[in-house]
User: Which sequence fits this backbone?
């Protein structure tokens, strides 16, 4: 597995945990422990996004063009088998 694939896998893991916790909270909105876990997963997901984008380019159009050039067109695209 390449470094880029590992970074994408980590991002997907964090996103799954964040979404799963959010779905749990939909049915248990008063669970403070779950809310803390959700917030921690959101933070870790954000960190994984930042790490991926720093090393491999933008994941979202809103993250493109932050450097000296328009990097959205660089390949491979995040969803192309990475």
Assistant:
């Amino acid at each position: 597995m390449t470094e880029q694939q590992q970074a994408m896998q980590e991002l997907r893991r964090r996103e799954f945990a964040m979404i799963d916790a959010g779905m749990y909270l939909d049915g248990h909105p008063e669970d403070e422990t779950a809310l803390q876990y959700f917030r921690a997963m959101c933070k870790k997901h954000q960190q994984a996004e930042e790490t991926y984008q720093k090393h491999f380019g933008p994941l979202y159009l809103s993250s493109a063009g932050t450097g000296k050039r328009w990097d959205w067109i660089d390949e491979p695209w995040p969803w192309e088998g990475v």
Notes: The CA atoms of residues 5 and 81 lie 8 Å apart. The chain has a mean pLDDT of 89. Residues 3-63 form one domain.
